[in-house]
Amino acid sequence: MGSALPLGEPAPVDGSLPDATGIDQATPFGVYLHVPFCRVRCGYCDFNTYTSSELQGARQDQYADTLLREVALAERVLGAAGPLRPASTVFFGGGTPTLLPPGDLTRMLDGVRTTFGIEADAEVTVEANPDTVTDAVAAELAASGVTRMSIGMQSAVPHVLAALDRTHEPANVRTALVSARAVGFDVSLDLIYGAPGESLVDWRASLEDAVALAPDHISAYALIVEEGTKLARQIRRGAVPAPDDDLQADMYELADDLLGAAGYEWYEVSNWARSNSQRSRHNLAYWQGADWWGFGPGAHSHIAGVRFWNVKHPAAYAQRLAGGESPAAGRERPDAAARALESVLLRTRIREGLPVSELLGEGRHAVAALIADGLVDGPSALHGSIVLTRRGRLLADAVVRALTD
């Protein structure tokens, strides 16, 4: 049911921002809509999601109305700090947003549109399990203003899907993609590598199947073992092996080779797109430090340097909003040092890199050694940006430590 919420100061009951919070109207504003429902819990998943047996009083059929109460609260909070900005990106994540009827997703999106406005060229993404996408679902979502679908393929190999507790039919990835294409969506496929029992041959098969489907965008994430998950318990008792770091590195290099040869260019450590226009603009906004409001239980927000996060359980979330209270559980305003560290952590992950000018003295002194070690691209550094080489992407945490120690 998700990892623990961060520590921070208590959030005010009315959800108001700290005094003198100044919102830059030129900063893009994104909206994240969390749908925390899944049919089954995948053994590796640490997201804030719930199956029907775990809802404990919360109801899926009332969820859209509950979330719209938070949209109304956000209108009051942000309106008190200045003019409301239209959303430049909207992202339905989860969980499995497409477990809800398309009409519920439409009502949430209409609530955002009515309250804040949505820019004419906005990117509006819905995450989807392949088994939940039909021609009718895709058509209704397109009519509501959705422009992009992110399909959870994860693997094309049945035994790998089983190891991940994924229950979708592999053939339905193509079916979902065809439905999404038919209504004009940009399409992303999400993959995971390093599952127990997955070989390099298995991973190649998944990559080749994904490329053959010709999506606009592909995400490939290394499996991470999170405490509290079924997978962590299985590894601890020796039922399955832990991910092999060297094998995962080989898998990453294979992905970069095959995707690059197929015309996909990396733009973030785990993401490749056919063109700049097909990058995930919503996720880029996170990495570039834009503003966003995350709606839903456990969702996180960032407004003008203030971070806040909601209570995790859908029942507690609904109860607070029904009582006229903010669902925020806590908040923080990182100081200058924390913001600088975060900027290095996030912006080194993207192809445009981190401006060298943002590094403090010791960090600047580390650049030459990182170039010599093949972790940072030398010509880019000479032109003022820290851009990771492929080897640097594999050792991104070490690069960040060198730049911030």
TrEMBL record:
SMART domains: Elp3 (SM00729)
Function description: Probably acts as a heme chaperone, transferring heme to an unknown acceptor. Binds one molecule of heme per monomer, possibly covalently. Binds 1 [4Fe-4S] cluster. The cluster is coordinated with 3 cysteines and an exchangeable S-adenosyl-L-methionine.
Protein name, as recorded: Heme chaperone HemW
PROSITE patterns: RADICAL_SAM
Domain Radical SAM core residues, every copy: 23-265
Subcellular location: Cytoplasm
Entry-linked InterPro entries: Aldolase_TIM, Coproporphyrinogen-III_oxidase, Elp3/MiaA/NifB-like_rSAM, HemW-like, rSAM, rSAM_sf
Top-level taxon in the UniProt lineage: Bacteria
Primary gene name: hemW
NCBIfam families listed in its UniProt record: hemN_rel
The family this protein is said to belong to: Belongs to the anaerobic coproporphyrinogen-III oxidase family. HemW subfamily.
Alphabetical UniProt keywords: 4Fe-4S, Chaperone, Cytoplasm, Heme, Iron, Iron-sulfur, Metal-binding, S-adenosyl-L-methionine
CDD domains named among the record's database cross-references: Radical_SAM (cd01335)
